[in-house]
Structure formats: C-alpha cells, structure tokens
UniProtKB/TrEMBL annotation, chain A:
Protein's recorded name: Transmembrane protein
Location(s), subcellular: Cell membrane
Pfam families reported for this sequence: BPD_transp_1
Keyword annotations from UniProtKB, A to Z: Cell membrane, Membrane, Transmembrane, Transmembrane helix, Transport
Taxonomic source organism: Streptomyces lincolnensis
Keyword Cell membrane: yes
UniProtKB/TrEMBL annotation, chain B:
Protein family per UniProt: Belongs to the binding-protein-dependent transport system permease family.
Keyword Membrane listed: yes
Primary localization: membrane
Organism of this sequence: Streptomyces lincolnensis
Any Gene Ontology biological process: transmembrane transport
PROSITE patterns for the chain: ABC_TM1
Transmembrane segments: 7-29, 71-95, 116-137, 166-187, 229-248, 276-298
GO CC annotation terms, alphabetical: plasma membrane
InterPro entries on file: ABC_transporter_permease, MetI-like, MetI-like_sf
Protein name: Transmembrane protein
Taxonomic classification: Bacteria, Bacillati, Actinomycetota, Actinomycetes, Kitasatosporales
PANTHER family assigned: ABC TRANSPORTER PERMEASE PROTEIN, DIACETYLCHITOBIOSE UPTAKE SYSTEM PERMEASE PROTEIN NGCF
Domain of life from the UniProt record: Bacteria
Subcellular location as annotated: Cell membrane
C-alpha cells in the first residue's frame, strides 16, 4: 500500500534520507505500519528543512571568525584560528557600535510611543460610543493592507518639510505612525474582552477617565501589550524600507541600513570577514532574545493572524 | 460615565490620529493626486497633466516587467510557502508514530524543537537575511556553489543572482526560507485545536493520512490558510520583496531588469531618477494590484465556514 504520497504539492525538495529504515515494531498491522513509514518519512523531511534553516546561520558564524583569504578559497572550511579581530574591527572601525546605538534609540522611542498612543486610541475606540468611532477605527486598520511604498514618496517630502529628515526623532514619529494600524486593531479587540465593571467602579469612585485608564485598564491589558509589543519590537528593529528612504545621513544609520551600506562599500575595501562579523553581531541579539522568550515571541507574532 | 467624556475622547485620540493622518493617510491621498501631475520631486513647481503618466506607464516596458515579476511573487510565493508550511505542520502535528496506549494522532517526537528552529529566520531582519544569502549565492566563493563542488557537481556552478533566468527564483527562495516557519507555527496552532476524535473516526473508517489531511485538516484550517495567503501576498508585493530585490540583485533590479519588482521600480523612479509623479503612478498601480489580489483570494477562497 502506498502511503508516502505527499499531502500537499511540495516543490523541489531534497528527498528524505531513507537509507536507514526504522522497521515497524511488533505485528505489522496495516495502520501501524502506515504510521511507521510515515513517521520515518516525516522525520526525514523535517530534519532536512531544519538543516536548511540552521546551516546558513552556522555558516555565517563560522565565516565571521575566518580571515579573508580562506573565506574565498574554501567557504566551508573551519577557521584556522578564531579571528576575534574581525569582531572588534567591525565594532569600532565599521561603525557597528553606532548603528546599534541608533537602532536602540529609534526602536526604544518608537516602541514606547507606539504602545502608549496605540493603547490610548484603542481604548477610546473599544469602550466609548461617539459619532465617527467606526470611521476612525476603519481608517486606522485600513493602513494594514495598503502598500507603504505608495505613501513613501510624498512621505519623504512631508518629513523633509517638517525638518525631520535624517533625525532620530523624525524616524521615531514615522515608525509610530506606521505601527499604529496593527497595534490599534489588536488592542481594540483586546480592550473589548476586558470586563467593564472594574472601570465603571473606579469611575463611580471618582477617578477621572484618564486615571482609570492609566491605573486600572492599562495594567489589566498587560498580556495584550506584551504580545503587540513584541510584534512591534521585531518589526521596528528589522525595519529597512523606512530608514532607507528617510534617513540618508551616514551618522544616523540604523543597523539594517548600516550593514547594507557597509556591504556595498565593502566591495571596494574588501573587508569581508569584518562584514560577516557585523552581520552575525546584528543577528545575535534577536536570536538570543528569541530563544529566551520563545513562547512570547511566537504568541506575539501569530496573535494577530489567529484572531 | 458621561462626565467629561468628549474631552477625554478628543484628548486621547488627538495625538495618535494626528500622527497617523500626517504620516500615513495624507501621503496616501497626496500620492494619488501627484500621479496626475508632472512633479519631479526636486522642485516645488508642477502642473496637472491628466492621464499622461498612466499612458506613459502602459508604454513602459520596464513597468510591465516589474508588474510581471510582482505577479509571480504574489502567486508563487504564497503557493510554495503555504504548501510547504502546511506539509511541515501536518508532519509535525499528525505525522507521529502511534505510541502504545497513546493517542491515535500525535505529533512527531521533538515537534516543539522543529517549531522553534523553523521560526528562527522569522525574527531576523529581511535585510540581514538578504545580505547573508547574497554572499551564499556568490558563484565563486559562496556557500552554495561550494557545496555543489563538494558533492562532485563541478559542472553545475550557476551564476545564481547574475543569471537573468535564475535570479528571480533565487531571490524568491530566500523569502520562502525566511517565511515558512511563521506559517508552520501558525498552522500548528490551528491544527492543535482540531479535535482528535475526528481523526480517530476517519482512521477507523479506513482513511489514510493524506485523506485525513485533505478531508479534515485542510477544510477546518481553511480560514487561517486564507488569511495567511492574503498576508503573504501583501508582503510579497510590498516591503519584503523590496528588501530582497534591492539588496541581493545587482543593478539593483537584476541583469536586464530580470528581477525588478513594482515596489523597487517606484523607489528607483522617485529617489534615483527624480520622477516623483511617475513613481506615484506606479504606486497607484501597485495599490490596485494589491487590492485586486486580496479581493480575488477572499472571493476564490470563500466557502462555507466549518465549525467544530
């Protein structure tokens, strides 16, 4: 009985390593055997993809410790010794430290701004009835489906006219604006699920609306804020298109932008090992954060799509 | 709850709405307006030219190339990515060996390990991923051709990003690599919520695993698949394809514009060639393509909602 037909169209994939068959245990009842064959098959394919995911990253780490000549002559050989000088060169001479600092400033500012402004707007939209509520809500979430690129050309001139081009705070404001659609969408749904009795009780006790919000609703919304915060953190940390257009001053470059510029210019300078060190340097913080906060990251990133 | 309500509402909405209107909504409206002008972006003067930009676009060979590539991105990328992800998620969640006394359907051993590893690329910046693969694709010293040489395929040494026929597919493979994990996790979560007794009943009735996939898993997961499809298509038309094409392919835009996509063409026209008005025209075309894509997927994918 053929049991290994693939359930979905699978594009060119290296076949599963089937050399070692894990023979079915005990009496080979039909379904049991089917399970076993499928099991070997699925493990094989899953392992192949896991290797495909990890290998390029390992290769980058390995290369970042090699000297230039061996990078070119034998890309897969192990480094003759660990060239830590690549890393220090990237950090100091290739301005990686500046790019890190800029990124931390921009992302720190935008993340706080996005969460504060996003939750304020979402709270009002979720819990108050007023004319125009629906219109504003759809205006916000409409931004999720439009191509940013369309707005980017006039955006450049808006930002330029305000004198915000090539500034950290300008970038922060734009990041916040472009993070609002998803943030408002997500948090509005979240605030609707919170019980209204607590807020009402506080209000009856004489707390103002804003006091009720900051001291009662916001702490209650913490799980939602964490999810949407992680989503925004990764999105803003990894942003490439907005800084490429709005931030052309070499001193203000963020990490992604700086690395790409470095790669372009490195074509002339030829410090490939330093570049690889920079690349790995930029990958490590997010990978480390992902491994530590794995559950929250996955929840945060998939939260919107599952709703 | 009436006291000071409107003052509060205005106070809380003013700043977020103001920022959003200024940096998102207003530029959108402007860009549609600019597409009817001859604005260069370099000087403040411009005049209305009606549909001239649109006519020019229809005669622009590179525009058609970029449209064609964007459409390939929007169709092939979600198809490959989502199929692969569904396949992996099914393997992870249903492909397990039946353990003595265990449930009928179970995930493979180490399923959470696979989910963690597959998700890795998703947290990396697409710009950094693109850079990494640009090196890996290098024909002489890159990792990929070196592997090919290592397994004795010395004669097969493609130029990858330098080959007009291959470059687009090489670029797309990178997006598949970086996105599959997200959908594996997403679909896994969906599959976990499908009750096991549905599978149990089907298997007792003699269905094999692939039948259960098409008859149980896929229909019950359909909503998630569909929204994933739209999401992936929008990414493929927009920001993600911009980063990979701009960073990875030479030119940029590839040999003989073989990898140029609409977003990249908008960028080049506006910020390289000083043709801001024409760029916004292509941007409007991109908007139309994006909306048409979303509408088409929602329409084609409409089927009765299944509850369980």
């Amino acid at each position: 009985m053929k049991t290994t037909e693939t359930p979905a169209p699978v594009p060119a994939q290296p076949g599963p390593p089937v050399a070692k068959t894990d023979a079915p245990h005990g009496p080979s009842r039909k379904e049991k055997q089917e399970g076993a064959v499928l099991n070997v098959f699925s493990h094989g394919i899953l392992v192949v993809w896991a290797i495909l995911v990890v290998l390029p990253l390992l290769w980058a780490v390995m290369t970042s410790f090699k000297d230039d000549s061996s990078i070119f002559s034998s890309p897969w050989s192990l480094p003759d010794k660990l060239h830590f000088d690549n890393w220090s060169r990237a950090w100091t001479q290739a301005n990686m430290s500046d790019y890190f600092l800029n990124t931390i400033l921009v992302v720190g500012g935008s993340l706080i701004g996005t969460l504060v402004l996003g939750s304020m707007a979402a709270y009002v939209l979720a819990r108050f009835d007023f004319p125009g509520n629906r219109f504003i809500y759809y205006l916000f979430i409409g931004g999720m489906s439009f191509p940013i690129m369309l707005a980017l050309v006039p955006l450049f001139y808006v930002v330029n006219n305000m004198g915000l081009l090539n500034t950290i705070h300008g970038l922060i404001l734009v990041y916040i604006a472009y993070s609002l659609p998803f943030t408002v969408f997500f948090l509005t749904a979240f605030f609707r699920t919170l019980p209204s009795s607590v807020a009402e009780a506080a209000f009856v006790d004489g707390a103002s609306h804003s006091r009720t919000f900051f001291q009662i609703m916001l702490p209650m919304a913490k799980p939602g804020l964490i999810s949407v915060g992680i989503f925004n953190f990764l999105g803003q940390w990894n942003q490439y298109m907005l800084p490429t257009v709005l931030n052309t001053d070499p001193d203000k470059r963020v990490l992604t932008q700086g690395l790409v510029q470095l790669a372009v210019s490195q074509g002339y300078k030829g410090d490939w090992s330093g570049l690889f060190a920079g690349l790995v340097m930029a990958m490590l913080p997010v990978l480390a954060a992902y491994i530590v906060f794995q559950r929250q990251v996955v929840q945060g990133l998939t939260a919107g799509a599952l709703k | 709850m009436q006291h000071g309500k409107y003052r509060f509402i205005v106070g809380f909405l003013a700043l977020p709405l103001g920022l959003y209107a200024l940096f998102v909504v207003w530029p959108f409206i402007q860009s549609i307006y600019y597409s009817f002008t001859d604005w260069t972006g370099l000087s403040p003067e411009f005049k209305m030219v009606g549909l001239d930009n649109y006519r020019r676009m229809l005669d622009d060979e590179i525009f058609w190339k970029s449209l064609q590539h964007s459409l390939i991105f929007a169709v092939v990328l979600p198809l490959v990515t989502i199929s692969l992800a569904l396949f992996f998620a099914f393997m992870i969640n249903v492909g397990g060996r039946r353990r003595r006394g265990g449930p009928v359907i179970s995930g493979v051993r180490g399923s959470s390990f696979y989910k963690i590893v597959y998700f890795f690329p998703q947290v990396l910046s697409i710009a950094i991923v693109a850079l990494l693969f640009a090196f890996a694709y290098n024909p002489d010293s890159g990792a990929i051709n070196s592997i090919l040489r290592g397994v004795g395929l010395d004669s097969v040494q493609p130029l990858w990003l330098g080959d007009p026929d291959l470059a687009l597919w090489a670029v797309m493979a990178v997006l598949v690599w970086s996105t599959v994990g997200f959908f594996v996790v997403l679909f896994s979560a969906g599959m976990a919520s499908i009750p096991a007794d549905l599978y149990e009943a089907a298997l007792l009735d003699g269905a094999n695993r692939s039948t259960t996939f098409f008859r149980i898993t896929l229909p019950l997961l359909w909503d998630t698949v569909q929204s994933g499809w739209v999401y992936m298509g929008i990414l493929a038309l927009g920001a993600e394809s911009f980063a990979v094409v701009q960073i990875m392919t030479t030119g940029p835009g590839g040999p003989d514009y073989s990898t140029t996509v609409m977003v990249l063409y908008v960028y080049q026209k506006a910020f390289r060639d000083g043709q801001a008005a024409y760029a916004t025209t292509i941007g409007v075309a991109l908007l139309v393509v994006t909306l048409a894509f979303a509408a088409l997927v929602m329409r084609l994918g409409r089927r009765e909602r299944l509850e369980f």
